[in-house]
Design a protein that fits this description.
By secondary structure, the protein is mainly alpha-helical. The protein contains 5 helices and 2 strands.
Length: about 110
């Protein structure tokens, strides 16, 4: 039974973010990914498993090797959520700017 994790929990870890950056450029095997980190192959495999559980990475069998690549659809979902949040925050700052401008104008 797979444990379903939150995407943001998965990307909170710096190693997992590093793995995502690596495989964003090109698909890689777990051994190739592990060579880029000061971690054991098993530790990197665990990070990959968590990313896969969150559907941030996909695996592809090529002969005897398994290659991991980024799931761009899932990354787009995250980006869409972040953009909505960013829009809300920017709107609040714009409203604050208007209030501050009004207050500044009243002082004169």
């Amino acid at each position: 039974m797979k444990t379903r994790r939150d995407v943001f929990q998965a990307i909170a870890d710096p190693t997992r973010r590093g793995i995502l950056l690596l495989i964003a450029a090109q698909a890689m095997t777990p051994n190739a990914i592990a060579e880029e980190f000061r971690s054991s192959r098993q530790a990197v495999s665990r990070h990959i498993q968590i990313l896969a559980e969150c559907e941030l990475v996909k695996q592809e069998q090529r002969g005897r090797e398994i290659y991991y690549h980024i799931n761009s659809g899932k990354i787009k979902e995250i980006d869409k959520w972040v953009e909505r949040l960013k829009s809300i925050v920017e709107n609040q700052f714009n409203q604050l700017d208007k209030v501050l401008s009004t207050l500044k104008g009243q002082k004169k």
